[in-house]
Specification:
Order of helices and strands: HHEEHEHEHEHHEEH
Radius of gyration: 24 Å
Helix content: 25-40%
Low-confidence stretches: none
Number of strands: 7
CATH superfamily of the largest domain: SPOUT methyltransferase, trefoil knot domain
């Protein structure tokens, strides 16, 4: 699940330059039974299966280094991830992401292994892998050199509309007919705001602040 995303574009270059190092670990490699079992039925009943504590604990203890490490469990109960969290996490030498599956993770993982729980938002995914990639991407952008220039950070630029060439785009589209009328073909000219073509940097800066 991780290979395609991690080996393209900015993250691939960052790894090649040794600015970041990313490793994935299969929890089944840390089991001790012949079926390589990582989940079991929850005590007290309930639907679905719960990920077991022991394989996760063995994995964390194996890969945790002597560096400044933060262990994160992705959970719907966690604190919502934001840009401030990405900046904070970028200060650590090692991040370990525990990706849940099935109906959840044995609560003892949150109690004694994880330093914090993170949620991506008010929705539920089938697993924590997407969450891990999102956090990984956001945190990596905060590491000096990953983007090349600090000016590339959108939070440094400010979030304003941007345009590029050509100055005028002729957008052709078909408008569906209504009330039995036939569809009509339309052409709309989409223009770059004049202020961005003016060369007046002060006016451009003011325009961006307003947008």
């Amino acid at each position: 699940m991780f290979v395609g995303y991690l080996n393209e574009s900015i993250l691939a270059r960052a790894q090649k330059k040794k600015l970041i190092s990313i490793k994935t670990h299969n929890l089944r490699d840390f089991t001790r039974d012949k079926h390589r079992k990582v989940d079991d039925r929850p005590f007290g009943g309930g639907a679905g299966m719960t990920m077991m504590f022991e394989p996760i604990a063995r994995a964390v203890n194996k890969i945790r280094g002597q560096k400044k490490t933060r262990i994160i469990l992705f959970s719907t109960r966690g604190k919502k991830f934001d840009d401030a969290a990405a900046k904070r996490l970028s200060k650590y030498d090692q991040l370990i992401f525990i990706c849940g599956r099935y109906e959840g993770v044995d609560e003892r993982v949150a109690e004694v292994l994880a330093n914090e729980e993170i949620s991506l938002g008010d929705y539920v995914l089938t697993g924590g892998e997407l969450g891990a990639m999102i956090v990984l991407d956001a945190v990596s952008r905060k590491i000096p050199g990953v983007l090349g220039k600090s000016e590339s950070l959108e939070e440094n630029q400010g979030s304003y509309p941007t345009y590029t060439r050509p100055e005028v785009v002729e957008y052709k589209f078909t408008r569906p007919g209504r009330g039995g009328k036939p569809a009509t073909k339309k052409t709309k000219k989409l223009k770059v705001p004049k202020v961005l073509l003016s060369g007046n940097h002060k006016e451009i800066e003011e325009w961006r602040k307003l947008h």
